[in-house]
Amino acid sequence: MSKATLKKAVSEPVFLVSVLTVALWIGSSLSISGFNTWSHNITFAQAAVYLGFMAVGQAIVVISGGFDLSIANVVTMASVVTSAMTQGGHSAGFAIGAALLLAIVVGVFNGAGVTFLRIPPMIMTLATMTIIDGSLLLATDGTPPFGVPPLVTFLAKGQFIPGIPNVLLIYAVFMCVAVTFMLSAKWGRRIYAMGTNERAAWLSGVRIFPMKFLIYVISSLCGGISGILLTGYIGSTYLTIGAPYMMFTVAATVMGGIAITGGKGNFAGVIAGTFLFIIIKDILQVIQMPQAGRELAQGLLILLMILLYGREKRQR
After folding, report:
1. Contact indicator for 54, 226 with CB cutoff of 8 Å
2. Contacts of 134 (CB under 8 A, 6+ apart)
3. DSSP 3-state assignment of 165?
4. Could you tell me the end-to-end alpha-carbon distance of the chain, in angstroms, rounded to an integer?
5. Residue 45 pLDDT greater than 70, yes or no
6. Do the beta carbons of residue 108 and residue 254 sit within 8 Å?
7. Contact 165, 153 (CB under 8 A)
């Protein structure tokens, strides 16, 4: 490997974020009692993968040049629908199918607004976010359902392999599919091209409208999958179950080196960014930092990563 290649690899966000994550984990293991235990590491990994599902959806949208503020609300919607269908006596398959179908509907709705009505993605998904919140309040009268399918609980907390929760295996398969999708010439390269220059992508033959529909459907499906599994992990649902994740998906995406202007970044960075964000969040909780302080720190981290990326881009 040449020095130039090595220098380029070391300067990539995924490398820097991975090194920082490992350094924080080692430092915390040495200084915080009980941090480096199997049970804590598994709990940490589980927290990361639920965010990881959503971060992939957000990353695809951002790489394409868009933004999805509604993904966290899709998490809540999928969770509430899964519980409501179960409470109503429906099978686990029906409950999961209904939740994923509604997630697809939300994705189509976002895609239609962004493409046909030409509403800016941030405004469109903000409107969708509000519509979902209002619809859930209206449908539940403010009281969330309580049913959780045993199958969903098993998928989230059960263990095919002793000591490893099933959700970690599901996430591994999910990421293999996601990486394959983004590396494909037919799909991934077109998404990157759209994010780099949408008009140039269109002139080169990329069908912009269908691609945008697909992108927003994928994002919503990622939120739906996370919401279903999160319900099984927690064992219940509530009307704000997905609320914190709106900012979390942005943080994980930005920390992973996804350019908020589109066209740059990869899923290795998203994974690294997700684990970095969760370990920082975990450390702040362990040291018992007040909620206000944690939110301030998280916001400053997002700003710092954006500034660092902007500086790197100018230097290039």
Report:
1. yes
2. none
3. coil
4. 21
5. yes
6. no
7. no
